[in-house]
Amino acid sequence: RRERQRFVDKNGRCNVQHGNLGGESSRYLSDFFTTLVDLKWRWNLLIFLLTYTVAWLVMASMWWGIAYLRGDLQQAHGDTYSPCVANVYNFPSAFLFFVETEATIGYGHRYITERCPEGIVLFLFQSLLGSVVDAFLIGCMFIKMSQPKKRAETLMFSRAAVISQRDAKLCLMFRVGNLRNSHMVSAQIRCKLIKSRQTPEGEFLPLDQCELDVGFGTGADQLFLVSPLTICHEINSESPFFCLSQRSLRSEQFEIVVILEGIVETTGMTCQARTSYTEDEVLWGHRFLPVMSLEDGFFRVDYSQFHGTFEVPTPPYSVKE
């Protein structure tokens, strides 16, 4: 088995990094919400904590500043004195008043009096700012938690692809399966062949993408994925593997990227699962083991045989030959 750089890992991660963006990196800030959602969880939690901590300290300092400027921090006042915020004597008490107001707790010990217009204005500003911050950060966390990326973990692809005959035609086949009982609505599968080539004009294309037909014309690419399915690409004169034989397979260098898309039934969000097969993971003259069996009133899927293959008589020649 030859170890080489993959364009797409088996788990679906694309091995592409963007560098030397220059001034184009400012585009990330123009779409700050998507940038925040795309960050890793540790950065999201750090931004979440820092934003609330800074906002709380700043707003508490503003309440403390109003009390300081009005002289409310001096506890020696007469009975007729009306402070801006009752029972705010220092910064901790101002911080507690802000938290009680922001969280709508309202213990009743601290409250704004009607003779403090600047406090009323600050209270309205705090309410609006708090609503915006809560909507932005909580919405970001909710979207990140509800992303269907983890749903792709329960969509399986066979470890290897096989080439053998089906209906007297040479076919490239691989297997897909859904581990959950919930269905993938409008599931569709696509395949891309990633291979370097040189054009007749002499231009070298290092990662040229070519479409592999897996039933687009017949509708076979639309999957009813309630049980493991074997996806078939017929090797004919229109296929990029028209000249591929068992012998030439050993010297070829290509990668087949498989993309499975569908709508998650429980959330209604679009999910995408990816994998890839290199030339070392394509087995010539093999067929997948059966995984379906009929039992008492239902069909059982044996996933222990999901990746299993066995050899079958297959001509070693290409379709062209």
Automatic annotation (TrEMBL):
Task: Keyword check for Ion transport, yes or no.
Answer: yes
* Pfam families given in the database record: IRK, IRK_C
Q: Which UniProt keywords apply?
A: Ion channel, Ion transport, Membrane, Potassium, Potassium transport, Transmembrane, Transmembrane helix, Transport, Voltage-gated channel
Residue ranges crossing the lipid bilayer per the database entry: 45-66, 120-143
The entry lists its GO molecular-function terms as: G-protein activated inward rectifier potassium channel activity
Pinpoint the Inward rectifier potassium channel C-terminal domain residues: 155-320
Q: Which residues form the Potassium channel inwardly rectifying transmembrane domain?
A: 8-148
Q: Which reaction does it catalyse?
A: K(+)(in) = K(+)(out)
Subcellular compartments: Membrane
Q: Does the keyword Membrane apply?
A: yes
What processes in GO biological process is this protein linked to? potassium ion import across plasma membrane; regulation of monoatomic ion transmembrane transport
Q: Which InterPro entries does the entry mention?
A: Ig_E-set, IRK_C, K_chnl_inward-rec_Kir, K_chnl_inward-rec_Kir3.1, K_chnl_inward-rec_Kir_cyto, Kir_TM
Where in the chain is the site Role in the control of polyamine-mediated channel gating and in the blocking by intracellular magnesium?
Answer: D134
One cellular component term (GO) for this entry is: plasma membrane
Topology versus the membrane, per the UniProt entry?
Multi-pass membrane protein
Tell me the protein family, please.
Belongs to the inward rectifier-type potassium channel (TC 1.A.2.1) family. KCNJ3 subfamily.
What name is this protein filed under? G protein-activated inward rectifier potassium channel 1
Q: Which gene encodes it?
A: Kcnj3_0
